[in-house]
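Look over this today:
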Amino acid sequence: MKVNFGKDSVPRLYHISEQNLNGKILTPRVPNNEFIKWGVEDGETKRVSFARSIGKCLTGLGRNILGKVFYVFEPDISPDKLKSNIVYPTKDMVPDVHITHEVWVTCPVKLKYKMMIKVVSAGKEHTLIVHRKDTDTDYVGKPCDWEYERVFTPIEEIKNIFSKIHYGWRNPNTGEAVHNEEEFQKLGGNVESIWRLGTPEQTIKAEVGNCYDTVAISREYLKRAKNIQFRTFFMVDKDGVFMDCPTHTFLIYWDTDDEWKWLEGSWGPFKNNDWHAKNPKDLIKWIGTAMANMDRKEIQIHELSGYPKYGCDMTEFETFCRKGSKVMTCKPEKEYTK
């Protein structure tokens, strides 16, 4: 049945799948399930099925799903279009709707990724009695509620780590955080000579680091994931002398959305951003131009084939990075050079 909503009322809906359907458009159709075959579910209305909670999505699967991992999506559709194309089926239309809270959308729907979940245990059972029209017999089912927990993708895990790391320095002797540059220099010299590239574990524990440290974390986590392609870069003032110019390291990765995305853990305005592009050169140029605009200098970008060794100082770090293959030079945009 159709439902009238208030002026600003929009239902929160979810759809789950064992496949990553992010960005995919689902076309309404009549499902091929047992209830349809038995003649007890609406076999005429073409729809995309959702539920009003993630748990009810799992209940609606009606089978043993313990241990399975699912992608969770929300409809990426305007509120007005959703309001005019939503149907709340009755029990005559869906026999177990009072258990599953199923909701139909009768227009094509683009899906937007929300999270991944893993089914960890079975909960309450529901008794369902359906009179089958095909055999004129009663079917007694026991649909079950399922308990689940969130599963983080490698990218989500990295971003969660970055959200806890602040820009700063790690005391290489004690491993403790030093948030003030002047205090860091009191350890015995300038930043370049005192700083050491931390291991991911050291940076995560101290909860401080710079771009060199956070890219090291990204690289290690993505290498463990094995199935995520990534590239690492080093940016430096094109005409600057050694150890006397702005530098930055960054990483881009190939996402399941069929796009290259920038994974940034240190550069304040862009930390945990979602900048992306189909062509990696477009994304690399955008990042390089952002730095060129900020420093009002031409920026040379190098691609790294590996990464400096943990424990190296800044001189060793930059020496390694400058040996990377040159990718492009980015100039400040005119409005930034006035």
